[in-house]
Amino acid sequence: MSKTSYRPMNAFITIEAIHMNEKTASGLIKSDEMMAAEREKFQGLLKVVHTGPLVPLDDKGVKQIEPGDEVILGNAAVMSNIEVDGVEYWQVDSYQVLGVIKK
Length: 103
Prior knowledge:
The protein has one helix at residues 32-40; strands at residues 12-16, 46-51, 70-73, 80-84, 87-93, 97-101. By secondary structure, the protein is mainly beta. The protein has a single domain (12-101), classed as GroES chaperonin (10 Kd Chaperonin, Protein Cpn10, Chain O). The longest helix is centred in the middle third of the chain and has 9 residues, at 32-40.
């Protein structure tokens, strides 16, 4: 995504999408609702690709979340699927981030 001019608006961040299995263990194809629920329950580090202009600043005036950082989202984080130049990403409000690992 760094080769494109796409940037999220406001306090949103764009993160690399985690590809989840589209079929159940028994081979049934999961519905969009099932995939969304699984995505919302994801627990793990997610790599930040881009940040919007209104991401909160720390006490030194530096963005608290920057591209390349890894973040942990809250359980109820609402993520939007987006596709840019044929690559899937997730976009989420930076206020739903619980913690950051600076890179």
